[in-house]
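Closing statement on the iron/sulfur cluster sub-project.
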Amino acid sequence: MRQEILSRAYDAIGEHTPMLHDCGALCRAACCRPDADGQGGVHLFPGEKALLTDCAWGRIVPDAFAPMLVCEGMCQRDARPLGCRIFPLTPVRGKNGKWTVRMDARARAMCPLAAHGLSGLDPAFPRAVRDALRIVAEDPEGDAFLEKWAALEAQYRQPLW
Ligand code: SF4
Ligand code: SF4
């Protein structure tokens, strides 16, 4: 995906975060903590691997879905990947065919905001994330990746039996 697209998506989110205050204080930044076994990470959008290859605070590991950034819970904030910037939201294709957002089913396991839905967030945050995703979708590779991301997330909505 073109770097210009990624830059514009990052800018669309800017300093917006899920809450007006630091929501990490609610959960000791649960979404940034590695798993007990040191695993876990965030999938990178197309083009992000090149931006993060030399970063000192994380490493990129291969994954069947997409390359994944694994960090120790501290990062250079303005370099964090899009997957971190949009969490706990995830893309979903609206009835009008445009990308919008919903709470990521995977957030339920760790994020205290997940149970409250979009109405529990600073309203500017979902708007900014939606705008960023629509910028990503301007690039065909970005649009295809959003489809893939949404399909993966949808698997976590399936009943377990
Ligand atoms: S887990 Fe949720 S509440 Fe905690 S820092 Fe991440 S987004 Fe904020
Ligand atoms: S890159 Fe930054 S925002 Fe993303 S999980 Fe690591 S510490 Fe958290």
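The chain has a mean pLDDT of 93. With this model delivered, the sub-project is considered complete and its resources will be redirected to Aim 3.
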